Amino acid sequence: MFHLQDDHALMGIYCFYGFSVITLLFAVIGGFGVWKEKKWALIVFAVGMILGCLFFIFLEISLPFAQKEMELSLKNNYLSMLPLSNVSESELSEFNHTQSEFRCCGITSHEDWENNIPESCQCDIDSSDDCIDTYGPMHNDSGLNVLDVKPIRIFAKPCIQALIQFEMRYFSTLLGIMLAKTLLWILSVGLCIAILCQLNKKVETPNVVYSREAKAGNYDILSDAQEPSLKTE
């Protein structure tokens, strides 16, 4: 179950790569439209960006409502691991590292270890964390039980809340990336629409064609109009 963290991280990376490839594809189409002044390419770019913005806005509105359900699902996944004394060696090593990092013990409490408390739960005497005293055998790094009649100081805080908060950080990061991409896409849509408007307003200059059959009769009017003024002078 501890591989959920890596699985969620990989899923987020794959989604990010997928959206990046789509963004790059539309960017190439839009750049081609600007370079060659092709309206169809700009229209395809604008439509694709608008659809992408609508999809991101839908996700950003719906995902926060699913946050509680995601937290409940994560909690149930971790609770299904109980008791911790039955986990595999690899999961035990990962969870010992988790307990040392988050300074906690057990999933819901230290009793999840069924009196086989590992050394990763032990807190120092001068520790500022909330610690409690308990009795029972402890596991050393080699996995052997170490009997001790003295009270053992262990972390009082369970790990489940810290694990859920750690998982939800990926969720918050994904929402932030989606919001940034949405704003960027909205800006690109506005620029594309502005370019399309400029292309529609472009004045077409008629081509001047030389013809040997051109007549000078039209210019006689101008010359006749200038003769009276010359005579008066």
Automatic annotation (TrEMBL):
<dbReference type="Pfam" id="PF00335">
    <property type="entry name" value="Tetraspanin"/>
</dbReference>
<keyword id="KW-0812">Transmembrane</keyword>
<protein>
    <submittedName>
        <fullName>Tetraspanin-6-like</fullName>
    </submittedName>
</protein>
<keyword id="KW-1133">Transmembrane helix</keyword>
<feature type="transmembrane region" description="Helical">
    <location>
        <begin position="40"/>
        <end position="66"/>
    </location>
</feature>
<dbReference type="GO" id="GO:0016020">
    <property type="term" value="C:membrane"/>
</dbReference>
<dbReference type="InterPro" id="IPR018499">
    <property type="entry name" value="Tetraspanin/Peripherin"/>
</dbReference>
<feature type="transmembrane region" description="Helical">
    <location>
        <begin position="12"/>
        <end position="34"/>
    </location>
</feature>
<feature type="transmembrane region" description="Helical">
    <location>
        <begin position="174"/>
        <end position="196"/>
    </location>
</feature>
<dbReference type="InterPro" id="IPR008952">
    <property type="entry name" value="Tetraspanin_EC2_sf"/>
</dbReference>
<keyword id="KW-0472">Membrane</keyword>
